[in-house]
């Protein structure tokens, strides 16, 4: 009995040790995030897990995932002017972000259904435009900038911004595939959001993707910025 009791205690300690390695400072740690430069810190992953648990509203789940990735790309573009990670880091980021979503309770089939990696990439190529400068210099992008001043929390302002974005994309792309249209929509968002602070970027994302509650406490987000690069914590 003593042996079985000791084994049970040891098993419990091992389990707790594993949990402590996964939960650090109140966050769920991603084992491979250090290799991915995208920053998803401050993201309300609990909310996306809840949305993705509802099989009756998968569209909302996908919009949340899309919004989180787009915000991280915008943050990256703010630092590098590049709309997403280099091709050699793409698989690493897809893997690390998928792991984080899973750790927070997002069903793996949700990322498959939403097309994470295809319909929702970690780098944006809008008809050869892969940088903020290229997007800003594209025809009529100035109309988007002019019609999307933050905040966009008012429905009328959000609608005006979305209409400007739709008109810009139709003129730029013509009759393109839905995947190209989606990628260029994300590139448009990331370009706009890369020009503003984090709070405003989240505000634009709520408008573009039609979802709310994307960010946890702004104070907590700012505290995390002092902890070094974080992909998905």
Can you offer a commentary on this structure?
It contains 11 helices and 2 strands, in the order H-E-E-H-H-H-H-H-H-H-H-H-H. It has 233 residues and is mainly α. Strands 1-2 form a two-stranded antiparallel sheet. Helix 3 (58-80) packs across helix 5, helix 7 packs antiparallel against helix 8 (155-173) and helix 8 crosses helix 9. The longest helix has 23 residues, at 58-80. It starts with a helix and ends in a 9-residue tail after the last helix. Mean pLDDT is 84; it is low at 1-29 and 217-233.
Termini separation: 42 Å
Report the strand count.
Answer: 2
Mean pLDDT: 84
Strand order of the largest sheet: 1-2
- Elements, N to C (H/E): HEEHHHHHHHHHH
Radius of gyration, in angstroms, nearest whole number: 19 Å
- Based on Cα principal axes, name the global outline: globular
Q: Are there runs of 5+ residues with pLDDT below 50, and where?
A: 1-29, 217-233
Q: Residue share in helices?
A: 55-70%
- What does the main sheet amount to? 2 strands, antiparallel
Structural class: mainly alpha
Write the layout of secondary structure elements.
Elements: H1 2-22, E1 23-24, E2 27-28, H2 45-52, H3 58-80, H4 87-103, H5 108-114, H6 132-136, H7 141-147, H8 155-173, H9 178-193, H10 198-209, H11 218-224
Antiparallel strand pairs: 1-2
Quick rundown:
This protein is mainly α. The chain is built from eleven helices and two strands, in the order H-E-E-H-H-H-H-H-H-H-H-H-H.
What are the salient characteristics of this protein?
mainly alpha, two-stranded antiparallel sheet, 2% strand
């Amino acid at each position: 009995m003593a042996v079985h009791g000791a084994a049970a205690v040891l098993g419990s300690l091992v389990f707790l040790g594993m949990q402590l390695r996964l939960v650090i400072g109140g966050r769920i740690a991603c084992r491979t995030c250090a290799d991915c430069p995208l920053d998803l810190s401050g993201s309300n992953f609990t909310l996306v897990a809840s949305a993705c648990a509802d099989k009756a509203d998968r569209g909302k789940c996908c919009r949340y995932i899309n919004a989180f990735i787009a915000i991280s790309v915008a943050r990256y573009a703010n630092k590098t002017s590049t709309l997403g990670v280099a091709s050699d880091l793409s698989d690493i980021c897809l893997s690390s972000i998928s792991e984080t979503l899973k750790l927070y309770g997002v069903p793996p089939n949700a990322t498959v259904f939403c097309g994470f990696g295809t319909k929702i990439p970690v780098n944006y190529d809008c008809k050869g435009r892969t940088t903020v400068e290229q997007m800003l210099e594209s025809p009529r992008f100035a109309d988007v900038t002019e019609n999307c001043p933050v905040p966009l929390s008012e429905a009328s302002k959000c609608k005006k911004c979305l209409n400007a974005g739709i008109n810009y994309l139709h003129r730029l792309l013509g009759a393109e595939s839905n995947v190209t249209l989606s990628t260029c929509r994300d590139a448009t968002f990331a370009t706009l959001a890369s020009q503003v602070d984090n709070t405003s970027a989240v505000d634009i994302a709520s408008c573009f993707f039609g979802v709310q509650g994307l960010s946890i406490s702004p104070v907590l987000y700012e505290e995390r910025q002092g902890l070094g690069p974080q992909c998905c914590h």
